[in-house]
């Protein structure tokens, strides 16, 4: 299954028989079999015809809308009647502070593990000239031990933030010139690498959102990220363990292989923005990562990261319904 991206102004997506036609004016740019599509991401002033939108909803295909700069705005998802049991378990867990904290610990542990694996991979490849990456990896391991015993949600979130600072401080050693990263920043991103990370994480939101809806979960009810207005807090929770392996790896690979050009970024009042060429290249790299097969050490299942997202959402649903621990994806 594939995600269709509409990332250029003036595009129109319409149905023709059993296929989708991506058009601009009278020209048909691309034809995609409807059966191959599981979601659509609109990141520009593009148009989806109303009959096609109705067809998407009938087929269970979600449409996710981003601003041209990459900020997630919302999703159109099919109405589903199933999943009331797991939704009730979500709401009941909101009232159980100990249970909520235990699930949040699992999320942070999954994120810290993913960050540590990425740094260790660079150590094994000989990029750790002065031991900085090994020390950062060791520090993240120590934070994982502390997170596993955290007895307060604010303290746990503090450990997560400290881990992110250690992790991103190591990025200058992971990137080849002219690319670099002086800490994580966003809203607006102030450099090209941060712009790529922000846009990539927004793409990941759509993938995890599909998985959450498919598992019958309420995307608004998270625990590490508490419910807030219309924020998809559970999506933000479950995407944490996928950030390093999917988006971060995609960005690092693009920079180090020479597949991204510095002049594809523009400085504006909204910070650094990506041109259509940069967005297309990043989308392609993220799709490659999502379609990469890895083996989950816990279950022994070998499949793509995209399918692992579905499995993890179902694992989260099972943990809630059966009052069990949640196990993050472990691979490598």
What is the strand and helix layout of this fold?
Blueprint: E1 2-6, E2 12-16, E3 19-24, E4 27-33, E5 37-42, E6 47-48, H1 50-59, E7 62-66, E8 72-76, H2 84-94, H3 97-124, H4 132-148, H5 153-169, H6 192-214, H7 233-239, H8 243-257, E9 265-268, E10 271-274, H9 276-290, E11 293-295, E12 302-304, H10 305-322
Parallel strand pairs: 1-5, 2-6, 5-7
Antiparallel strand pairs: 2-3, 3-4, 7-8, 9-10, 11-12
Helix pairs in contact: 2-10, 3-4, 3-5, 3-8, 4-5, 6-7, 6-8, 6-9, 6-10, 8-9
Binding site for Mn(2+): 160, 225, 240
Protein name: CRISPR-associated endonuclease Cas1
GO biological process, one term: maintenance of CRISPR repeat elements
Describe this structure in words.
This protein is α/β, with parallel strands linked by helices and 332 residues long. It folds into two domains: 75 residues, Ribosomal Protein L15, Chain: K, domain 2; 240 residues, CRISPR-associated endonuclease Cas1, C-terminal domain (Four Helix Bundle (Hemerythrin (Met), subunit A)). It has ten helices and twelve strands. The strands form four sheets. Strands 1-5-7-8 form a four-stranded mixed sheet, sandwiched between helices. A four-stranded mixed sheet has the order 4-3-2-6. α6 packs across α9. The longest helix has 28 residues. The chain is globular. The two termini are 24 Å apart. The relative contact order is 0.12.
The largest beta-sheet arranges its strands as: 1-5-7-8
Which percent bin holds the helix content?
A: 40-55%
Radius of gyration: 20 Å
Biggest β-sheet strands, sense, barrel = 4 strands, mixed
Q: Do you know the CATH architecture of the largest domain?
A: Up-down Bundle
Number of strands: 12
The CATH H-level homologous superfamily of the largest domain: CRISPR-associated endonuclease Cas1, C-terminal domain
**H and E order:** EEEEEEHEEHHHHHHHEEHEEH
